[in-house]
Amino acid sequence: MMATAPGKCFLVTGPPLSPAEVSHNFSPESIRWPTVGKYKVDIASFEALALPELQIKEDTDLFIIDEVGKMELFSSPFFPAVLKVLESNIPLLASVPIPKFGRDIPAVARLRDHPGAKIFTLRPSNRDAVKEQIYTQLVDSE
């Protein structure tokens, strides 16, 4: 988890899919979609949902992005939009993956290394305490 500091809440996520939809929802164009593990990435649908929500508006108090990872980064305009949010004066709460096998995603590392970023490592054993830390961090940034 990553939180940055000041300001409504936007979730970048879609409706949950059932396991049947995830594994059998194929169309002729889905053959060309990029994959991450066993999942295909419908970039056009993702961008239609996510990019309008990442626009900076006067009445926005907080951005929440679940998650900035390999799948989301198939969208070329997504990362610049996240950077624009990060450079704004609006707090950003985002989940980012932990590097696997010593390999990091360069765009994720750039967000993690941002001077305004505060990193929270979430585990089942600490999630309640971390939730309070994140809340305090966001409230104190107002």
UniProtKB/TrEMBL annotation:
Transmembrane segments: none annotated. GO terms for molecular function: ATP binding; ribonucleoside triphosphate phosphatase activity. It comes from the Eukaryota. Keywords: ATP-binding, Hydrolase, Nucleotide-binding. It holds the Pfam family NTPase_1. InterPro entries: Nuc-triphosphatase_THEP1 (IPR004948), P-loop_NTPase (IPR027417). This is Cancer-related nucleoside-triphosphatase. It comes from Populus alba x Populus x berolinensis.
